[in-house]
Amino acid sequence: MQTSKSSYPVTKTDEQWRAELSPAEYQVLRQAGTERPFVGEYTDTTTEGVYACRACGAELFTSETKFGSHCGWPSFYAPLAGDSVEYIEDRSMGMKRVEVRCASCGSHLGHVFEGEGYGTPTDQRYCKKTISITRRPTTTA
To answer: Residue 133 and residue 135: Cα distance in Å, rounded?
Structure first.
């Protein structure tokens, strides 16, 4: 498990992040907050596309790895590329979890869980906050 980087390719001041993000986006992405389950626009969508960090636009997940976990937030079984996210040990809330952040800007995306019994190739559930990602539909030529 890797720890938080000291610098990221995309760096901005706190004031810049606050100016560019809505208060709710800032609370989740920059302060590791959460959103209520079952309220996000991507929770149950099956539209093809690439899911990117809402803060910096880095591509993180694809619809090919998205699955219905029925947990209230979008779930994926693997990131787009191994180095597109970083993992941080999270001992908040009285338990040990693994936080997932955008490797390009350090924004909080959610957590990853293992061994829950989902029939996915990795036995992992990357539980993402809808407010932390944006979907770019796949276009056909």
So the answer is: 7
What whole-number distance in Å separates Cα of residue 77 and Cα of residue 86? 15
CATH class of 14-137: mainly beta
Q: Is 127 a catalytic residue?
A: yes
Distance CA 26, CA 131 (A): 9
- For the chain, the domains span 14-137
- Mean pLDDT, each 10-residue run in order, the chain (141 residues): 65 95 96 91 89 96 93 93 88 85 96 92 94 86 51
Q: Sheet containing 133-137: which strands, arranged edge to edge?
A: 59-62, 49-53, 133-137
| CA 64/CA 111 separation, integer angstroms | 19
The DSSP call for residue 11 is: -
